[in-house]
Hints:
The protein is mainly α.
Amino acid sequence: MPFIITDPCIDTKDSACVDVCPVDCIHPRKDEPEFASTKMLYIHPEECIDCGACVPACPVAAIYDSVESTPASQQGLVEANATFRAGDADALARAEAIVAAHVAAHADLMAVPAPERAAAHAK
Ligand code: SF4
Ligand code: SF4
């Protein structure tokens, strides 16, 4: 199962995971035109090889190792990861709409500073 990026990436988006991913399946990269307009980064579910390198690299613990281990509050973002495709404006718009809906539905989590947000996922 693919790894999943969740909401601590919003407000952080530092690309540390991109730098360690051996198969370049995390997008958008800083050198891709979509980078400025996305609220977070996404993992391509079919390209991820489940190596786990991105998890310790993320400074805010935003990445879960499977759909099953992704907390209930973050399940909507599984689809956002699956939807985004670099170079596809429609896919970007659909993924970002999912993220915007997540933000609107989870004002409680968004009020938590990004470095502490993952700890609040299970509450
Ligand atoms: S688990 Fe490995 S392949 Fe998958 S996104 Fe993370 S670093 Fe890339
Ligand atoms: S390392 Fe974490 S916060 Fe940084 S871009 Fe990747 S998922 Fe987002």
